[in-house]
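Newbie here. two chains, one complex. Structure please?
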Amino acid sequence: MNRTILITPFIVLTAICLFFLIFILLEKNPNDPPSALLNKTLPTFSSINLYDKEETYSSDSLKGKYTLINFFASWCAPCRAEHHLFFKIKKEIPELYILGFSHKDDLDDSKKYLEEEGNPYSYVGIDRDGKIAFDFGVFGLPETFIVNKDGEIIYKHTGPLTKKIIEDEIAILF
Amino acid sequence: MKLQFFFKIFYIIFFSFSLYANESIDNKVKKLTLELRCMTCQNQSVYDSDSDYSKDVKIFVKEKFEEGLNEKEIKKILTKRYGEYILFKPYFNSKNLFLWLFPFILVILSMIILLKNSKKTKR
């Protein structure tokens, strides 16, 4: 009896410790770190059009419309894997403005990539030095953001999109 | 001749000062980037990593130090973009209060239990 009383608090404490340890570890999964920009105003940016050096596009232009922002590069294999899905998104959610950023890529390579895979983007901006991506907290390609009419980031996905992700996580936002 | 000597001394002092300033910034960058997590690596600091992401963070940190920002301000900018996850050592705030206090709570509780039980055994 005495021994049980002695051991019980330690068992309870160990259980509590384990519970919180699991909770902390789950929250800090390195493959899916929490996004700091979610539900916050998108960072300000200004980017030159990939096809027209005279044309620029700024973050102010996004106000009043739902926008999907995708960071891609011709050298990024997972970007190629998800690329065709943007045509699906464009077809299923026509009100969504799709903005692509050619990230740290040779401009000719980006153009060639879009010629080969097709261009689903409403606008393709250049992020040659990666500064726009840095402001968006991008740390690996591809990364996709969805911005609402008020300019708030309402969704972020790191890694390639899949049909399931589009159906379960993106389509439900509209 | 005297003028030449004066210029030589001036150059030596000027360059040693700029070298010292650069070294001091490099040290600050090293100290801070050692506290930052490389988000694309497994348990590696930004300083120790050669990934593209870590290189960008190192450049950013150096630029901000050169602009005159301090460590706290740079950390604030980075956590705004990447979240507190980028810091190896989390902030001491209400969200992380449990994380910081739990070891102490555990020690105190253990001490109480130990004292109670030792008293019981003495009786």
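Moderator note: Residues 16 and 22 of chain B are 10 Å apart (CA to CA). Chain B touches chain A at residues 39-40, 42, 52-53, 56, 60, 79-85, 98-99, 102, 106, 109-110, 113, 117, 120 (CB under 8 Å). Thread marked as resolved.
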